[in-house]
Amino acid sequence: MTEDELLFLGDDWAQDRHDVEWMDAAGRRLSKARLPEGVAGIERLHSLIGAELGEDSKAEVVIGFETDRARGCRR
Fold first, then answer.
1. How far does Cα 52 stand from its chain's mean position?
2. pLDDT tens-digit profile of 1-53?
3. Are strands 60-66 and 6-13 parallel, antiparallel or unpaired?
4. Residue 7 in contact with residue 62, Cβ under 8 Å?
5. CA 72, CA 75: separation in Å to the nearest integer?
6. Are 21 and 7 in contact (CB under 8 A)?
7. Strand partners, 11
8. Closest-CA residue to 73 (of 60, 65, 12)
9. CA 9: distance to chain centroid?
């Protein structure tokens, strides 16, 4: 990844899991995963982000969460 890259992470937040997907600025899927709810899922999400970006990346990441109320998009 280059430092000035823009990436998107979508999270479909279900009751007992998170289905996440990485996309680049052109809309190409880079990876996807199903993560458990709770601390284990957050730990795995952090690992996935670290693996995708690398330790010293300065890439901007836009994250969107889908909740049961279809709200919660943050940048």
1. 10
2. 555 688 999 998 888 899 999 998 899 998 999 999 889 998 998 888 888 88
3. parallel
4. yes
5. 10
6. no
7. 20, 65
8. 65
9. 3
